[in-house]
Amino acid sequence: MAQALTGMKIVDLSQVLAGPYCSMVLADMGAEVIKVEKYPNGDDTRQMGPYVKEESYMYMMVNRNKRGICLNLKKEEGIQILKELVKDADVIIENYRPGVTNKLGIDYETLKAINPSLIYCSISGYGQTGPYKNKGGYDIMAQGLSGIMDMTGEREGKPVKVGIAIHDIAAAQTAIQSILSAYIYRLKSGVGQYIDVSLVDAGLAWTVWEAAAYFGKGEIPKRNSTAHRVSSPYQGFQTKDGSILIGAGNQKLWEKFCLYVINKPEWINDKRFLTNSIRTQNVNQLELEIESVLQEKCSSEWLSLLDEHGIPCSPIYSYDQALEDEHILSRDMVLNYEHPIAGPMKTLGFPAKFSETPGQLRSPAPLLGQHNQEVLDELGFTEEKIRELVSNGVLNN
């Protein structure tokens, strides 16, 4: 079956999450990705559990559809091998701390001299410029600096980290769209370019509603539990046996909610709840009033009634419930495959459904250095030379 990015070659020097997620999505769409892991132990996620037969599930989750080599870039011969790989590559992805690639001699300007049309994408915590560029930057630090952590949590509680590595994934998605934009430009012009992506910038760019409130009216977003800042009711509510989400944020939905779901027609003309804006100003009182009614029935009963009247709603699942939901399974968001060591495995599916060039799970994540021989054969290295590189600590065995 055809794939959209068949023919694109990517050399991926990144590790852990943001870079590997970026290259995984491109690989899912057909790109050839050669993952270059650091010698001798590989990507740091190989040392992170859980493990299945000594293989890291964390590593396997974001490195499918790639070939892998383990290369010592602290040795000149390792650098020369990388440069050979770059000669016919379309893209290189790296997430070293700024300045490291210059020290190694694999920075953009150096590799551009080898391959003038190269697209070179750097992903870092704070970016390649600015006063914080040399700081170590992980997702949680980006959540703190971007203001996202301060606006997350219970109203009177402490700042709370978002439950997933949101800045890592934001950076990965930013890198994906940037690489594809640069690739399209190169197809038209023949010109490659350098791309600088930071975790902080990528996550901050997602705070569009919050920026509108601040730039427009000087409002500083504060922790608001599950409630929305400009729409109400649009949040989680306690029922008799748990919690559900209700999104009746416009006037039509609000009136249907009052009339047909909770049987409170008098709320439609209640001065506290007349408009969406007024309801949002009185969200704490509104929450108490709604929950006093929702305590009468179980979550499943309310969800059924809300669905019946076309009011957006959802259960609040634990993660295992999410992965077992019939809708998620029907959308092929859980895939099964066979790993050569770990055996039968599950992984997440492809979120975009293409009619002509769908994502494909072609191969599991590579074992450490699995494709050393194969990749170096393609570069013209002899068996004797490969053995010499292994004995000299340039490649793993």
UniProtKB/TrEMBL annotation:
Keyword Transferase (UniProt): yes
GO molecular function terms attached to this record: transferase activity
What Pfam family is a match for this entry? Answer: CoA_transf_3
Q: Which UniProt keywords apply?
A: Transferase
The UniProt entry, under PANTHER family, shows: SUCCINATE--HYDROXYMETHYLGLUTARATE COA-TRANSFERASE (PTHR48207:SF3)
Q: What is this protein called?
A: CoA transferase
**Organism, as annotated:** Psychrobacillus faecigallinarum
Q: Which Gene3D superfamilies match?
A: Crotonobetainyl-coa:carnitine coa-transferase, domain 1, formyl-coa transferase, domain 3
